[in-house]
Specification:
By secondary structure, the protein is of the alpha+beta class. It is 14% helix and 35% strand. The protein is built from 4 helices and 7 strands; from the N terminus they run E-H-E-H-E-E-E-E-E-H-H. Strands 1-7-6-5-4-3-2 form a 7-stranded mixed β-sheet. A hairpin with a 6-residue loop joins strand 4 (58-72) and strand 5. The longest helix has 11 residues, at 115-125. The protein is elongated. The chain starts with a strand and ends with a helix. 12% of the residues are buried.
């Protein structure tokens, strides 16, 4: 499992009120992101730039995330490469806050684990389905041809099987 820790000692000791970071992260095959989005791959590491700021005991993590990913189009199954950028803030608990509270991330052994909040945001930001283009025509349901490349020779008019008996009345 990947580890992505930020040393919080400068803030906890009072030497600094801000810690800046510029890191990269690649989700493991067994990470929650990889398991939830098995059809998405990350050709390059995810870039994390941000800071932790202490404002009189109130600490906040701010992170700007940028990544590129590859997946298959949800309609035509062609490979799609996409870029995604987003930012998020997360409050940091250092005192009497229940560990069951999901609104905070927690400092453990004077270190802040960034993987959990980043993975949590990735789950919310990654699209559930990706299209190669907005007007993607998809695949023919009969022959499987990619309709973006041209029409197929399949019959497009299909009689409702419940009404097929009525066709015999015309004979």
């Amino acid at each position: 499992m990947s580890e992505l820790f930020l040393d919080m000692l400068p803030i906890l000791s009072g030497k600094s009120n801000r810690i800046d970071f510029d890191l990269v992260y690649t989700p493991d095959a067994d990470s929650i992101v990889s398991l939830s989005f098995a059809d998405i791959s990350f050709p390059t590491p995810i870039k994390l730039v941000g800071y932790v700021k202490n404002m009189a005991g109130y600490m906040v993590l701010h992170t700007d995330v940028s990544l590129s990913y590859e997946t298959d189009c949800a309609r035509c199954a062609e490979k799609v490469s996409a870029v995604l950028s987003f930012s998020f803030d997360k409050d940091i608990a250092s005192g009497n806050v229940s560990p069951d509270n999901d609104d905070y991330i927690y400092i453990t052994d004077k270190k802040l684990d960034l993987i959990e909040p980043v993975d949590e945001q990735l789950l919310m930001e990654l699209p559930s389905r990706t299209l190669c283009r907005d007007d993607c025509l998809g695949l023919c349901p009969k022959c499987g041809k990619n309709l973006n490349l041209g029409k197929c020779s399949c019959e497009t008019h299909e009689v409702d099987p419940r009404l097929a008996i009525l066709k015999t009345l015309l004979k």
